[in-house]
Write a structure and sequence with these properties.
It is a single chain. The chain has 493 residues and is mainly α. Among the domains are: 112 residues, no CATH class; 61 residues, Orthogonal Bundle (Arc Repressor Mutant, subunit A), CATH 1.10.10. It is 71% helix and 0% strand. It contains 28 helices and no strands. Helix 14 runs antiparallel to helix 15. The two termini are 36 Å apart. About 1% of the residues have low confidence.
Length: 493
């Protein structure tokens, strides 16, 4: 990566288009296998590139950098028929992912056409076509199929040693599996890849830190906010370092919700201010929605403006984004908006049941139950709560119960007394007793139960009793996992 950037800088210093054009055409793939797309774009933008291939690379870089006007102008200037098949696929992929080139159905057709051009290819171009198609499949509500396409793209990128592209593809795949509630699969796959790539050079190693996003999301959803914050912060540092604009949005949603679980509104406010500053020059509706949601649920001084903005987005769209729906429901249930959201939410829930998005489904179930509870329709509220509780126990989807202060919590507790009325925010510094920490340290030294008992003068049965408590509190299955978890939480040196 550094070598390529050095070559590019040397070529650009000549300001000779006769050298720059051939270099760009020869190194198309290298421009994509790097997080520093915005830097490449700023370096190339001043030059009047003329070849179709060069303009296509520039169009992609403009799109990924958020310069949508230049992106559109470059795409429109390209002569499609003059491109080779793999470059035709790359061109169609760009039109597929850009909302400037039609409806979802129109862009989906571009993607299908792209796949035909790379049918016999097995390089970057096919991996890219698969990844773009995965994005569109996800938007059509086929989450599992999208996850599988992202996984296929990852396999091609990884085999071709295109590690940046590989890390983004597998992160998207795992995020989709997370939505389906396959939490163990996400954690195990991510940890396997992190172990596999642990010996990579530092330049490539940072790519894999983005796996903190799906891992952190899983921990947030399963109501483990301390672990969620640790992994999401790792992902945030990597995303900021690599300037991955396209990975923002999902990251901020899960960070905001983790702060809500922790009830840390001061840090949430600081985070929102930082995020606003980062995106103030970009008019990206998805990010404005995320920031608006954060300001509303944190009672930010600009809350009133964001309420009106969110209401307008809701009224202007037939297909409402999940976060917009969640926010409008929250506002209505807190008597901050008079918009009737029920019909659209029921439609959205039907879509989630079809796609298998149980995380979004549970959030809707609880918001709609809250609405009916406030309206004194306890029968309807009870049916929705029972479905949400089933997901809580069978799929371990817990966080939506604790994000907001529900009026219907007395009914929730009546239906299932195991669900407490406040979030399980664990203070890990006081999680284990002094005796349990002492035993954990001896386990770390490799001592067995008999040796531990003789060291601290208790019976072997008492040692077993303490160890069972340690495993339960740390939510692990064996001693090795307990040691790893304790070190992660800084309970052991």
């Amino acid at each position: 990566m550094k070598r390529f950037k050095q070559f590019l800088d040397e070529i650009l210093e000549t300001k000779d288009l006769n050298q720059i054009e051939p270099f760009v055409k020869k190194n198309v793939v290298h421009f994509f296998d790097s997080p520093y797309l915005t830097k490449y774009y700023k370096s190339l933008k001043p030059f009047a590139l003329k070849s179709n291939e060069s303009k296509l690379v520039l169009a992609w870089l403009a799109f990924l950098s958020g310069d949508f006007m230049s992106h559109y102008m470059h795409v429109m200037s390209i002569h499609f028929d003059e491109l080779e098949d793999v470059m035709k696929a790359l061109y169609l992929d760009l039109k597929s992912i850009s909302k400037l080139f039609g409806t979802l159905e129109e862009r989906y057709k571009y993607s299908l056409e792209s796949l035909q051009y790379v049918e016999n290819d097995n390089s970057f171009y096919k991996g890219n076509a698969l990844a773009i198609h995965a994005n569109l499949i996800f938007l059509k509500g086929e989450i599992r199929k999208a996850a599988e396409y992202f996984e296929k793209a990852f396999e091609i990128f990884f085999r071709e040693q295109l590690y940046f592209q590989a890390s983004v593809a597998i992160s998207n795949s795992l995020t989709d599996y997370m939505r389906l509630g396959e939490f163990s699969k996400v954690i195990e796959k991510a940890q396997h890849i992190l172990m596999l790539t642990s010996e990579f050079q530092s330049d490539d190693k940072v790519y894999w830190e983005v796996l903190g996003l799906p891992m952190g999301s899983v921990y947030m959803i399963t109501n483990k906010p301390a672990l969620a914050m640790e992994w999401l912060n790792r992902a945030e540092r990597a995303i900021d370092q690599m300037e991955l604009v396209h990975m923002h949005g999902s990251l901020e949603i899960y960070l905001i919700k983790t702060y809500l679980l922790l009830k840390d509104f001061k840090k949430l406010g600081n985070f929102l201010d930082k995020t606003c500053h980062l995106f103030e020059h970009m008019h990206i509706e998805s990010m404005q929605t995320v920031i608006g949601y954060g300001k509303i649920v944190s009672n930010h001084p600009e809350k009133s403006v964001e309420i009106e903005r969110m209401e307008q987005i809701f009224l202007d769209r037939d297909n409402v984004r999940p976060l917009v729906m969640e926010t409008i429901a929250y506002l209505s249930n807190h008597q901050l908006s008079n918009i009737n959201f029920v019909e659209k939410m029921v439609q959205l829930m039907d879509g989630y049941r079809y796609s298998g998005d149980i995380v979004s489904l549970q959030t809707c179930l609880l918001q709609l139950a809250e609405h009916y509870y406030i309206q004194n329709d306890y029968v309807a509220a009870k049916l929705l709560i029972e479905e949400a509780i089933e997901l809580y126990h069978q799929k371990n989807v817990k966080a939506p119960f604790y994000l907001y202060d529900y009026h219907c919590f007395p009914l929730i507790s009546k239906i299932d007394k195991r669900i407490i009325t406040t979030a399980k925010v664990v203070d890990y510094t006081n999680l284990l007793t002094q005796r349990e920490l002492e035993i954990l340290a001896l386990i770390n030294q490799g001592k067995n139960n008999d040796e531990i008992g003789k060291t601290i003068f208790i019976s072997e049965g008492t040692v077993k009793w303490h160890i069972n408590h340690i495993l339960s509190k740390l939510e692990v299955k064996n001693r090795l996992q307990a040691i790893d978890k304790a070190k992660t939480l800084k309970l052991l040196d």
